[in-house]
Amino acid sequence: MSLPIYLIGARGCGKTTVGQALSEALGYTFRDTDHHLQSTTQRSVAQIVASEGWERFRQRETDALHAVTAPGSVIATGGGMVLAENNRRYMREQGQVIWLSAPPDVLAERLQQQPEAAQRPTLTGRPIAEEMGDILRERAPLYRQAAHHEVSAMQPPAQVVEQIMHWLLRARAS
Ligand code: ADP
Ligand code: MG
């Protein structure tokens, strides 16, 4: 049995970075719902949101989640994937869900250092650190609810991967 592994958490928590390393360590395929969306629509997230709005984007995001779900995959999900109750339930039922958690100031700092940060519109147009605080207040309960396990994203990626591997071994033995 090689259930899909879903990585959830806010932008910047390391879902893509950790997901790629974890998939290599497990010999799994790496999938990323944002990348899937971009390659199937040939548009960036920002372009989809600008032309179709957030609601349609969220629907496309759910479709992407279903499309990439397969055994033997590590799946990095969009930061807002947990907003929909049906996405949370789907991930919990289909696989093992891991939340990479970190405080808002750390996430904002990481995003500010990323050139592609501009690709994704902020939700409000306010400074990213401020906005990240609000987003986490709203979403932390949803990440917690969706996750089978929480791992601190405040350690180097290799260590995050190691902790996840450790938890998987125990979870799969029980
Ligand atoms: P996500 O996919 O969750 O948005 P990324 O994997 O793209 O996050 O990482 C966002 C940025 O933070 C990247 O520049 C990445 O190199 C950096 N990063 C990711 N994980 C860590 C970590 N555990 N410690 C330090 N920096 C990290
Ligand atoms: Mg990512």
Total number of strands: 5
Contiguous runs where pLDDT drops below 50 for at least 5 residues: none
Q: What small molecules does this complex bind?
A: adenosine-5'-diphosphate, magnesium ion
How would a crystallographer describe the biggest sheet? 5 strands, parallel
Radius of gyration: 15 Å
Q: Per DSSP, what share of the residues sits in E-state strands of 2 or more residues? A: 5-15%
Q: What is the assembly state of the chains in this entry?
A: single chain
Main β-sheet, spatial strand arrangement: 2-3-1-4-5
| Average residue-wise pLDDT | 93
Protein name: Shikimate kinase 1
InterPro entries: P-loop_NTPase, Shikimate/glucono_kinase, Shikimate_kinase/TSH1, Shikimate_kinase_CS
Binding site for substrate: 34, 58, 79, 139
EC number: 2.7.1.71
Give the helices and strands, then pairings.
Layout: E1 5-8, H1 15-26, E2 29-32, H2 33-41, H3 45-68, E3 73-76, H4 85-94, E4 96-101, H5 104-112, H6 128-146, E5 149-152, H7 157-173
Parallel strand pairs: 1-3, 1-4, 2-3, 4-5
The protein binds adenosine-5'-diphosphate and magnesium ion.
Adenosine-5'-diphosphate binds next to helix 1 and helix 7.
Cofactor: Mg(2+)
Keywords: Amino-acid biosynthesis, Aromatic amino acid biosynthesis, ATP-binding, Cytoplasm, Kinase, Magnesium, Metal-binding, Nucleotide-binding, Transferase
Function: Catalyzes the specific phosphorylation of the 3-hydroxyl group of shikimic acid using ATP as a cosubstrate.
